[in-house]
Amino acid sequence: MHDKNEKRLEALPPWLAASDKYIVPKDSDAFLNRSIDHFLGLIQKGRSLGGSRTQSQGHPLLALAHALLISFLVVLSRELSFLYFPLAWVLIQLCFLPSRDLVRILQVSLLAALFNVLVLLPAILLLGETRSSLIVLKVFITVTQMQIFASLTAWHDIIASLRYRVPSIFILILHISLKYIYLLGETALALLYAFRLRAVGRTQGKGMTMGGIMGTLFIRSRMEAQALYQAMVCRAFDGTYYSGHRSWSLTWMDGLKAIIMVFLIYVFYMGGR
In this structure, are residues 52 and 223 in contact, taking their beta carbons and an 8 Å threshold? Predict the structure, then answer.
């Protein structure tokens, strides 16, 4: 009986008698994982453009002017003593933020300040530059203030407030660009996830695969652009950007910001230049 089984095995072709055990070769997915993390960060930033729903920034146009004015004065100032005033105001604003927004803003601001310290380190050590702290402090204040503005002000409110001061075509281009960057980022993320799920073991031609993903994004952008154009034609779009009929009333926060803006302008004019 044993001899008969051995003869049957010998009669089978070698590929049928071979073991079916498959050992998956190891491969590096560092580039793919970094790409996924990058697109996840892009989508998270796109979702954060909606601003905070729990706190009110008052009138969005005044909030934008407030953030831009502080950044403008900080950049123009040459006196370290003046920077203490906008720094104190920025820290006060941080105290009233939710913990999640506070951690995210400080991570970016401190990272930007640390990067500037590393860039200026040769000048500090070799040339004895003593005003490098001025640049680092300016970077921290401006980055923090703009992030506070972005976290507390809804993007569509900014668009709606700009409609009364900026030509409609510029607002439309800005709004559409940000919207479709977010949509294409979601498409690229889905393609990367699909590629990682289908990649078993070591994959060849990763560059061609990434090229295919970029080509798919290009085709998708062309399709979206054509669909948007046809929608505009069907709705008889005449170049006027309509952002709704929402109106804002001034709040105590708007009054406080106006006072801070006047105070900073006065201090800058008296000795902050």
Answer: no
Residue 73, CA distances (Å) to 89, 223, 253 in order: 13, 44, 21
Torsion, Cα 94 160 264 68, to 10 degrees, reads 80
Q: Do the beta carbons of residue 273 and residue 78 sit within 8 Å?
A: yes
What pLDDT is recorded for position 52?
46
Q: In order along the chain (273 residues), what is the average pLDDT of each group of 10 residues?
A: 55 67 60 67 60 56 87 87 90 87 86 85 71 84 89 75 71 79 79 74 64 82 86 81 62 85 89 68
Check residue 228 and give its pLDDT: 85
Length of the chain equals 273
CA distance 131 to 126: 14
Q: Which residue has the tokens 């954060």?
A: 48
Does the reported pTM lie above 0.90? no
Between CA 102 and CA 93 the distance in angstroms is: 10
Question: What value, to the nearest 5°, has the Cα angle with vertex 221 and ends 224 and 163?
Answer: 65
User: Could you give the maximum distance between any two Cα atoms of the chain, in Å?
Assistant: 108
d(CA 20, CA 207): 31
